[in-house]
Write a structure and sequence with these properties.
The complex is a heterodimer of chains A (332) and B (275). Helix content of chain A is 68%, strand content 1%. With 332 residues, chain A is mainly α. Chain A has 2 domains: 59 residues, no CATH class; 236 residues, Orthogonal Bundle (MetI-like fold). In chain A, helix 5 crosses helix 12, helix 9 runs antiparallel to helix 12 and helix 14 runs antiparallel to helix 15. Chain A is globular. The two termini of chain A are 22 Å apart. Chain B is mostly helical and 275 residues long. Chain B has a single domain, classed as MetI-like (MetI-like fold, Orthogonal Bundle), CATH 1.10.3720. In chain B, helix 3 crosses helix 13, helix 4 runs parallel beside helix 7 and helix 8 packs across helix 9. The longest helix of chain B has 29 residues. The chains are: A mainly alpha (332), B mainly alpha (275). The interface between A and B is large, with 112 and 112 residues.
């Protein structure tokens, strides 16, 4: 999950005073300074802008981040299998997409991804808001819990995933505890009906600290006067939180909602470690399906097609996200 | 307002929340301190003599994995910083309107790149690396990891550069310092906090990365620790003690950073980007 909460973006006044560039005066190309020789076009750009500071990073990302996305699109429009990963890719038009959308397994995977997204949304918002409210009071216990949350949030998903695989094992600590209470044990990760919800809960556990920290950041920015005024009017704590504070932090919550849904479409590590998409295909979400098609069956084209379908969903959410981040930056 | 009684309730709920996160961690550490026999006999017993045998065994068998992890993490972190610091510098200096447009476009691209799910980049990267002859080499994996973490590192560093007042640059330029000198002598020394934060976070992330590692490294080559953990926990295994020891080793850099400078990590993450 990523959220860039940078503060400064548009500061035209400062930028204008900081730049000696003769932007307003120049008609046509900017006048070179008299004391400098007239260099080539690129060098002139380099003299005015820090472009060379950006080129190495941009070059690498162009080759290893943007170019692969183009390859992904080409793959989905070709027939690439185990034999021709290196070699000719016969073009097949949109056949892969037609086949994918005609496959019930894709729709099932989309449905499972949405289930995970729904679980995450409920957890991140309901539990996240409640916990953030409780944790905005301060104190030593709060500090310790916050530190722990930061730790869990930075924990590699592979670690939290294997931790929960152990805890939820059929004869693991949780089932042992349940048995000790005299209750029937639960096949958390091996029951076809339950596994998806168990993994969703694991992801929710891992994602909740992020949500708490983001919401808490929003809560702390709300002016205390407003809350005091509400208290003087006799509103209780939770009433104030829901009626007054919640609407005030709506921009933060908007970004969080987008990131939460994105997270569901991204989550793969947890499934890989805990269930590998099983039992059967009951926990095969979109990212799991595309990975398995590509790397278990080596149907690269089919994997790429599912990946692109998932990315399409990501893109639908990406547009408002980028807008919201930019608005947030411009506003603060 | 929060009354005295609600405050007590809050402390109780906060502690409860803490336990939900603390108990699993403790269980992991406890299990990693058991022997194989103890795990087989009574996997969830609380009465046992803690021993470091499992760690000795895991580290003994997995010293190659730890070395691979170190190689990858050091190389990736180094290159990411070398590329990200100048890029963040360039993206934080609004010197003209046209450059402002460049910044806006690049930032939007970085945001989008950060959002592309890794399972989706692993498929095309597999073929890209293969066609460049880099598949199945440490170099190829390192390049892929760099591309994965670079957007994040730039976005995380940029606010630190923005925090440097423009007047500092102006003063340097009045003194006749070129752009490179401004960068080297002024910006980099002032970015100490940001660089350390990014270094720590990138290192932690690479150390825990496994999707690229298990696909881009050749068969038979020693996997990094994270890859080993992924491989072993994805197959059915009852040797929870060694699995949990591996999990602890996989979170070791995080643990270290956290113990050394928890405050800096928190404030760095809060200031910059949130993973």
């Amino acid at each position: 999950m990523s959220l860039a909460l940078t503060d400064d973006e548009a500061r035209p006044v400062e930028a204008r005073s900081a730049s000696a560039a003769p932007r307003s005066a120049g008609s046509g190309p900017d006048r070179p300074r008299a004391d400098r020789p007239r260099p080539g076009a690129l060098r002139r750009v380099a003299a005015r802008t820090p472009i060379w500071f950006l080129v190495p990073a941009a070059g690498l990302l162009g080759g290893l981040a943007i170019y692969p996305l183009i390859v992904l699109v080409r793959m989905s429009l070709s027939d690439v299998g185990p034999t021709n990963i290196i070699g000719e890719w016969p073009a097949v038009g949109v056949d892969n997409f037609v086949a994918a959308f005609g496959d019930a397994e894709l729709w099932a995977a989309i449905w499972r991804t949405l289930v995970v997204a729904a679980v995450l949304l409920v957890s991140n918002f309901v539990l996240g808001f409640a916990a953030a409210s409780v944790l905005s009071a301060g104190g030593r216990v709060t500090e310790a819990v916050l530190a722990l949350l930061v730790f869990v949030w930075a924990l590699p998903p592979i670690v939290s995933g294997s931790t929960w695989k152990f805890l939820l094992d059929d004869s693991g600590p949780i089932n042992t505890a349940i048995a000790a209470l005299g209750l029937p044990t639960v096949s958390w990760l091996s029951s076809p009906d339950l596994a998806l919800y168990s993994v969703a809960a694991i992801i929710a556990w891992a994602a909740l600290p992020f949500s708490i920290l983001v919401i808490r950041g929003g809560l702390l920015a709300v002016s205390p006067e407003l809350i005091e005024a509400a208290a003087l009017d006799g509103a209780g704590f939770w009433r104030t939180q829901v009626r007054i504070v919640l609407p005030l932090i709506r921009p933060t919550l908007g970004i969080l909602a987008i990131l939460t849904v994105l997270y569901a479409f991204k989550s793969f590590d947890f499934f890989y470690v805990t269930t590998q998409g099983g039992p059967g295909t009951t926990t095969t979400t979109l990212p799991v399906l595309s990975y398995q098609l590509a790397f278990n069956d080596f149907q690269m084209s089919e994997g790429a097609t599912v990946a692109l379908i998932a990315m399409l969903a990501v893109a639908i959410f990406a547009v408002p996200y980028v807008r919201a981040v930019r608005r947030e930056e411009a506003g603060s | 307002m929060i009354t005295h009684r609600t405050r007590r309730w809050f402390r109780f709920i906060a502690a409860l929340l803490g336990l939900v996160y603390l108990v699993p961690m403790i269980w992991v550490v406890l299990t990693s301190l058991k022997t194989k026999q103890e795990v087989l006999k009574d996997p969830n017993g609380l009465v046992f003599t803690p021993t470091l045998d499992t760690y000795a065994e895991v580290v003994g068998d997995g010293i190659g994995a730890i070395l691979t992890s170190l190689q990858i993490a050091v190389a990736v972190t180094g290159v990411v910083l070398l590329l990200a610091v100048p890029a963040a510098f360039a993206l934080a200096r609004r010197i003209s309107r046209r450059w402002g447009i460049v910044i806006a476009v690049v930032l939007a691209a970085l945001l989008v790149l950060q959002m592309v799910p890794q399972p989706m980049t692993v498929i095309p990267l597999y073929s890209v690396l293969a066609s460049w002859g880099l598949l199945g080499s440490l170099g190829g994996l390192i390049l892929a990891d760099i591309a994965l973490l670079l957007p994040f590192a730039i976005m995380l560093l940029r606010p630190f550069v923005l925090a440097i007042p423009p007047s500092v640059y102006e003063a340097a330029e009045l003194d006749g310092a070129g752009r490179w000198q401004t960068f080297r002598r002024i910006a980099v020394p002032m970015l100490g906090n940001g660089i350390v934060t990014v270094l720590a976070i990138v290192f932690i992330s690479v150390w825990g990365e496994f999707v690229y590692a298990i696909n881009f490294l050749p068969q038979g080559v020693v996997l990094p620790v994270s890859g080993l953990l992924a491989q072993q926990s994805s197959v059915y295994s009852t040797e929870w003690n060694s699995l949990m020891a591996l999990a602890v080793i996989t979170s070791l850099p995080l643990l270290l950073v956290f113990l050394i400078s928890q405050k800096r990590l928190i404030s760095g993450l809060a200031l910059g980007a949130v993973k």
